[in-house]
């Protein structure tokens, strides 16, 4: 039988001669509860934002991207595609060509990034999901077709494919030709229809025009050259691990990067924001834990008679100290459990009822995502704060009050 725990459980919110002790105990539990719930809500909100950012960037940044270490392009046959496709985690892949071009439609023009892709790339990027108008396809009624970002379509006032006209003109500089010498002959031009327009985020909507890779290769005179190989992994795959294995397989001629590595600054910023928010809330919890010290101090003053009785029955001072240590841990544990439940409940309500809306955004409400590892870290952190607040002052206080009780 754990005697100290039984006494601690009996003392928790038991009727006392001084009602102020109960009030301070309730305040201690309330502080721990609020801090814990705040940690759950804040970290879940940061997770939600990070997941949303990852979602809007993932269509044009596949899980794995293979590029040359030197130069902008490489020959397809210099990369063993079959060996990469043989990796168990690989779902699909697509050769990609990227180059800046000039788009014209009537009197309107805009500089954009031409992205030449294979047909399976549309499924890899879930392009149909982001279509604002038209269809996600690279072949129109009159031949190859382009999919424009919504910003580009609006700026160019480009009509959708009607099966008759190819209104979008694409101009790109020919490799090796200097503009000052060849002037107009330094540019290659082609015309295509517009099959549709997508919207993902402001950056992509005004930047990318997606076309068939053969059209991009002919326009840019790339022949068998490409800019990159983009690879989609199966759900649940570890991008960093697969990228490392592919890098080891390919050697030093190619650079293999995961989506997180390509956007390292963005993901590192999100991680830093999450850590700072957690640190601030933990510090607030540490300050709030001083209520536990006050509660234990007043309880030890009130229970001096009980301590004298326990010592007279043969209990050791260590046993008495454990009574109040367990009391502090019970206060902490009660606050943590209620706080976790409250925090998860608030996040569930936000997802279910969209309590906090987001105006001027693609999302209707603030995104939240509760992650089990976060709950474990929160529980461990707050519990350690409670343990520290209960143990550090206990030795000094117990010596004083145990002398008074003996």
What does this structure look like?
This protein is α+β, with helices and mostly antiparallel strands and 406 residues long. It folds into two domains: 3-56 and 267-405, no CATH class; 64-259, no CATH class. It contains 16 helices and 13 strands. The protein has helices at 3-11, 19-57, 81-85, 121-124, 150-156, 179-182, 202-205, 213-220, 239-250, 259-262, 264-288, 290-302, 304-312, 317-353, 372-391, 394-405, and strands at residues 64-68, 74-75, 90-105, 108-117, 131-134, 139-140, 143-149, 168-173, 187-198, 208-212, 225-226, 228-233, 254-258. A six-stranded mixed beta barrel has the order 3-4-10-7-9-8. Strands 2-11 form a two-stranded antiparallel sheet. β6 and β7 form a beta hairpin. α12 (290-302) packs across α14 (317-353). The chain is elongated. The two termini are 25 Å apart. The relative contact order is 0.19. The mean pLDDT is 87.
Notable traits:
406 residues, alpha+beta, 2 domains, six-stranded mixed beta barrel, two-stranded antiparallel ribbon, 13 strands, 52% helix
Short description:
With 406 residues, the protein is of the alpha+beta class. The chain has helices at residues 3-11, 19-57, 81-85, 121-124, 150-156, 179-182, 202-205, 213-220, 239-250, 259-262, 264-288, 290-302, 304-312, 317-353, 372-391, 394-405; strands at 64-68, 74-75, 90-105, 108-117, 131-134, 139-140, 143-149, 168-173, 187-198, 208-212, 225-226, 228-233, 254-258. The protein contains 16 helices and 13 strands.
